[in-house]
Write a structure and sequence with these properties.
Blueprint: E1 4-8, E2 11-12, E3 33-35, E4 43-49, E5 52-58, E6 64-74, E7 81-92, E8 98-105, E9 108-109, E10 111-116, E11 122-129, E12 132-139, E13 145-146, E14 152-153, H1 161-171, H2 176-180, E15 185-193, E16 199-206, H3 210-221, E17 229-231, E18 234-236, E19 238-248
Antiparallel strand pairs: 1-19, 2-19, 3-4, 4-5, 5-6, 6-7, 7-8, 8-9, 8-10, 10-11, 11-12, 12-13, 14-17, 15-16, 15-19, 17-18
Length: 249
């Protein structure tokens, strides 16, 4: 019997999921307004712009919830159109006050991030350069400076990346027929880590073979809850991309 290796490479991706939602499929009309399946009581609208789109969410009271600018480009891994956060992103409280304001450059924080308390006082002012924090300050609701804490924290498998790799490696089994026929390759999965750490919305974004694809899905479905992603210490839904290499030796 051939030996095999299962190689795991962890990739993190953040889309609109960073703001408690997941960007809908782009096969919907960019001019239509639809109920948002991920936020009860919210509605979204996508406006096409040059080389991209602007994704807008609304509360049930018709006030804006969020506005995110994206570029649309071809994904090198999947060959399909991909949305890349690029430009201004803003989120508002339900009563209308600005919650935070930031800028992306090719999915990376760049420039100034400002967030606000519901009373309008400044909560944070961070300066980023291509995802690296240059300087930052946080304040309580009365404008007194407090210990700085991260604006965003990615979801994490309990025990970290090494624990995730051990978990997947111990449970993945190379399907017999795929092994017999010498089929190998990289399956890329994408899923959502919910606010309670539950894994949902698992899908294959790059297929190799039905047996390998289904084995990857089976094991990801068996994962325990993760530590959820955070924005301003509040749990949020976040997209997570996980490539799994099946390799025979």
């Amino acid at each position: 019997m051939k030996r095999f290796y299962i190689i795991l490479v962890i990739l993190f991706t953040v889309s609109a999921g960073l703001f408690s939602q997941v960007l809908p499929s782009l096969n919907r009309s960019l001019a239509d307004k639809h109920p948002n399946a991920f936020n009860q009581g919210l509605y979204f609208k996508m406006d096409s712009v040059k080389n991209g789109l602007v994704y807008k969410d609304y509360y049930s009271n018709k006030k804006p919830y969020s506005e995110v600018e994206y570029l649309i480009s071809k994904n090198k891994e999947t060959g399909k159109p991909d949305t890349i956060a690029n430009g201004k992103t803003r989120v508002w409280y339900k009563k209308g006050g600005l919650k935070f304001d930031l800028n992306y450059e090719n999915r990376m924080f760049t420039g100034i991030i400002k967030s606000y308390w519901e009373n309008g006082n400044l909560k944070r002012k961070d300066v980023f350069l291509r995802d690296s924090l240059i300087s930052g300050a946080c304040f309580d609701s009365t404008s007194v400076e407090i210990k700085h804490f991260p604006f965003s924290v990615m979801p994490e498998f309990n025990g970290g990346e090494k624990a995730l790799m051990r978990f997947l490696s111990s449970r993945l089994m190379y399907p017999f027929n795929a092994q017999r026929l010498g089929i190998q390759g990289r399956v890329i999965l994408q899923f959502v880590v919910a606010v309670d750490g539950e894994i949902s919305d698992i899908k294959i974004v790059r297929k190799v073979n039905d047996e390998l694809d289904q084995e990857a899905i089976r094991v990801v479905k068996s994962m325990p809850r993760w530590k959820p992603g955070l924005i301003e210490n509040e749990p949020v839904r976040v997209y997570f991309t996980l490539p799994i290499y099946f390799k025979l030796a």
